[in-house]
Specification:
The protein contains no helices and eight strands. The protein has 100 residues and is mainly beta. The protein has a single domain, classed as Immunoglobulin-like. It starts with 20 loop residues before the first strand and ends with a strand.
């Protein structure tokens, strides 16, 4: 079982987006329908595994990261996909992933 907190569209109380870098998004299929139960991995700029969460029933996921180049990869029994995101500083940074 994943040790990450439940993934939701809203941030946990106390998150200060002026100080924290949050990569968030949804896992979607080819018709833009949310995909729950996907393993969502955060890979650093060299492609090394950094963290993993399971997308919520509404496809939501989030990672607390540092500024830099990241890849978000989603793996599901119906397919996989990835997207790049490069937050330059604190704030909320969107990275939806479409699987095929």
């Amino acid at each position: 079982m994943c040790g990450a907190p439940p993934q939701t569209a809203s941030l946990p109380p106390g998150v200060d987006l002026a100080k924290e870098t949050v990569v968030h998004g949804r896992v979607l299929d080819g018709s833009s329908t949310p995909v729950g139960g996907a393993y969502v991995r955060l890979l650093d700029g060299s492609g090394e595994f950094t963290a993993e969460v399971v997308s919520s029933a509404t496809g939501d996921f989030r990672f607390f990261a540092s500024p830099g180049a990241w890849t978000v990869r989603a793996l599901h029994r119906s397919g996989s996909g990835s997207t790049a995101v490069a937050p330059s500083g604190p704030g909320l940074h969107a990275a939806d992933v479409t699987i095929d």
